[in-house]
Amino acid sequence: MRIMPLTLATVLSLGAPAVAQDPPRLGFPVDCTLGETCFLQQFMDRDPGPGARAFDCGPQSYDGHTGTDIRLVDFAAMASGVAVLSAAPGTVRAVRDGVPDDGTPAMSEGQGCGNGVVVTHADGWETQYCHLMEGSLIVAPGDRVETGTPLGMIGYSGTTEFPHLEFLLRRNGEWVDPFDPSDLNQCGAGAAALWDPPLSNPGGGILSIGFANGLPDFDAIQNGEVRSGRLNVFGDALVLWGYVHGARAGDILRLVITDAEGAAVFTQDVALDRTQAQMFRAGGRRTPDAGWPAGVYRGAVTLMRGDATIDQATTTVILTRD
Asked: What is the three-state SS of 66-86?
């Protein structure tokens, strides 16, 4: 999605030009733990043609994408409230609120950002924060903010498919990639990123995993509704599922279930045939006629890319006769 700058009637006059200085050092704009409660989903598109490529020349982008997407695990995490923070000192130039958190697939031109905030910084720099939760904004035009000042909460407003913050950076109206502020028509140049402290991109990962008595519904996984820690030994099946972001064609998702004695109950390597922003896979075994032996079962999900392990997560479930 190509985001246009917010254009509201109330705009603070910037006054005289600032003295030229080094680019701003950017703090992480979300109050979360990267890789645990939030994840780097997609990056700016650095392909000048109809294709898409991220700063590292990988596929974590799409044609015309002008921001950095920092996502939450699911809608349950969004409902708990995750703050969006100013990435650098500056002055709030514009805000928009009142857009419902419904992921509207088509918005008017320039409105795809949903609820958002624009902050101006010295020397022509500007940051923009999109897809905030309706009614969560706590700043107004003219407010002075510092690095880490809360602006609002991550939401699902505007044109979006999952709860996330889209962070955008401009200088004098031109888009800048905070992971590599060099020529946007190139990738892999390795220019020094603007993040302080530095951020690394694992290239995808596991959002969440869990057990179920059958194939779970994807909407339920996205809503955070399939995380049972206790199942009946006579359920239809014992199924392990994994919810993944940034999967690439050729990746392997390994699913392993072991019983209380450590013996393998189920093992499967699922070959992924598409590059997807988010997806889930599940596998397991039908329940034996006599039911499963009661006890604690362990599940492990591993995302593999060639010889490398991109991410791994484990969980447990208690099977009972209750």
From this structure: CCEEEEECCHHHHHHCCEEEC
Cα–Cα distance, 148 to 146 (Å, whole number): 6
Instruction: Give tens-digit pLDDT for 273-289.
Output: 999 999 999 999 999 99
Residues 6+ apart with CB under 8 A from 62: 42, 45, 52
194's torsion region: left (phi>0), alpha (psi -120 to 50) or beta? Answer: alpha
Q: Where are the alpha helices (DSSP H) in 171-265?
A: 218-222
Nearest of 161, 153, 160 to residue 129 by alpha carbon: 153
What is the Cα–Cα distance from 163 to 103, expressed in whole angstroms? 9
Domains along the chain with CATH numbers: 1-201 (2.70.70.10), 205-320 (2.60.40.2550)
Residues facing residue 90 across a β-bridge: 145
Characterize the bridge pairing of strands 115-120 and 125-132.
Answer: antiparallel
User: Which pair of structure tokens corresponds to residue 182?
Assistant: 């060099």
**Are 226 and 241 within 8 A, CB to CB?**
yes
Strands, E, within 2-82: which ranges?
Answer: 38-42, 68-72
Name the pairing type of β-strands 125-132 and 264-271: unpaired
- For the stretch 97-139, pLDDT in tens is 999 999 987 766 678 899 999 999 999 999 999 999 999 999 9
Question: Structure pTM?
Answer: 0.90
- Kindly give the pairing relationship between strand 230-232 and strand 308-320: parallel
Instruction: Classify strands 276-286 and 295-305 as parallel, antiparallel or unpaired.
Output: unpaired
